[in-house]
Amino acid sequence: LWSWKWVLAGSFLLPPGVLYLAGDRFLDLRLVDEGDYQIRFLSFGKIWLVAMLMLTLAVLVNLEKTFRASVGMSRWRIKYLFVGVGMIFGVKIYTLSQMLLFASYNPALSSLAASGMILGCLMIGIGHFRSSFGDFDLYPSRAVLQGSLVVMLTGGYFLIVGLLAQVVKLFGAKGNFPAQALVVLLGIVGLAMIALSDRFQAGLRRFVSRHFRRAEHDFRRIWTDLSHRTSSVLDPETLGQHATGVISENFDVLGVTVLGARDDASALTRLASTEQQTGGEEVLLSSEEKADLVSLARPFNLELQKGEWASILRESCPRKFGHGGDRWAVPLIAADRLIGLVVLVDRVNGVPYTHEELDLLNCIGDQLASSLLNCSLNEEIVRTREIEAFQTLSTFFVHDLKNAANSLNRSLPLR
């Protein structure tokens, strides 16, 4: 908080400063009936409302970008938190738009704002008791503002409210307009929550595949996305993070873990996971168990495997939901040796994997294995060049020592 001291101080000093500079051009207090006053916003007041509306919209835009950037288990854990915060700021946008539209303050908006705050805090509380938030890493999206879902919903809201305002103005009935606008806002929020549901998106893809005879997955788009994310990556951990994101987003899997193997170690090291992005955990496997994994070659159902290595993998990648279906594993094989392993846990609705999806997972596994092997070879090349540079430096150093010794022998007097 200390680094934000000037921002916090400015946020407390700005409202009184604006009121002082605006003077009588900010608010107008009028007596409508006996004991009943009406607060109207003048030119500076409208400018202030527009500024507050834009700032609130910016908060929602960044919130929505961060939510869309999360994948798998991280999205499941923060969904209710983000919906609650979004509801609070959504009601704020509604109240500000009403004050800006009518250029006046309606006391009923205070009750609406309080109700929105209570509901938002309730959603945040549900999210806390549902997952306790824990420690998770988020990587905010850098998508352009034009593609933001919040901007689209807000624009649609203002368009519909503007049309309602014109209709109300045409017929002269102003009593029910705030209620109509509130219904529109609640409808848009409901549609947004449905559209963000993992189950809705998975069902929509299956509906298109079933009724329009199209492939359930766009292979060309997925392959382009995977190549774009991993083509220039030389770090195994970063490569694993990109791979978990691609698999989780396209197969509706909440838990994706990438394990990497080395020839000089009898263990699989956790490179990346949607549950724990930092990695570092190890799964010990013998050479015979690695050979068993190589013999499987294709994606396999981890629940059906009977070996001790399967029990170790199941313990290291536990299920979070009882309805998430069976755990599957994709062996990463390149040059006839085990490079790593991808474990898939907790699929949305527990939908079984089709042959089409298993083929796609196999292709992704081959590409990921090749990329991990390239990372390993690149590390060996760098290490070899470092050794060569050290040997060259040592040769020059020894040569200089010999020259110094010869010079010292010549300079010493003979006795």
Short overview:
Helices cover 63% and strands 13% of the residues.
Please characterize this protein's 3D structure:
This protein is of the alpha+beta class. It folds into 2 domains: 27-196, no CATH class; 219-378, GAF domain (Beta-Lactamase). Helix content is 63%, strand content 13%. The protein contains 12 helices and 9 strands. The protein has helices at residues 5-22, 43-69, 72-102, 108-131, 149-171, 177-195, 198-211, 219-230, 236-251, 287-296, 308-316, 355-411, and strands spanning 27-33, 36-41, 104-105, 253-261, 267-273, 282-284, 300-301, 328-334, 337-347. It has a 6-stranded antiparallel sheet with strand order 6-5-4-9-8-7, with helices on both faces. Strands 1-2-3 form a 3-stranded antiparallel sheet. A hairpin with a 5-residue loop joins β4 (253-261) and β5 (267-273). The longest helix is centred in the C-terminal third of the chain and has 57 residues, at 355-411. The radius of gyration is 31 Å and the shape is flat. 27% of the residues are buried.
How would you sum up the global shape? flat
Question: How many angstroms does the end-to-end distance come to?
Answer: 77 Å
Total helix count? 12
- Sequence of strands across the biggest β-sheet: 6-5-4-9-8-7
Give me the count of strands.
Answer: 9
Number of self-contained structural domains: 2
Radius of gyration: 31 Å
Main beta sheet: strand number and arrangement? 6 strands, antiparallel
Structural class: alpha+beta
Order of helices and strands: HEEHHEHHHHHHEEEHEHEEH
Quick check: average pLDDT? 77
Spans with pLDDT under 50 lasting ≥5 residues? 138-147
Report the helical percentage. 55-70%
Proportion of residues in β-strands:
5-15%
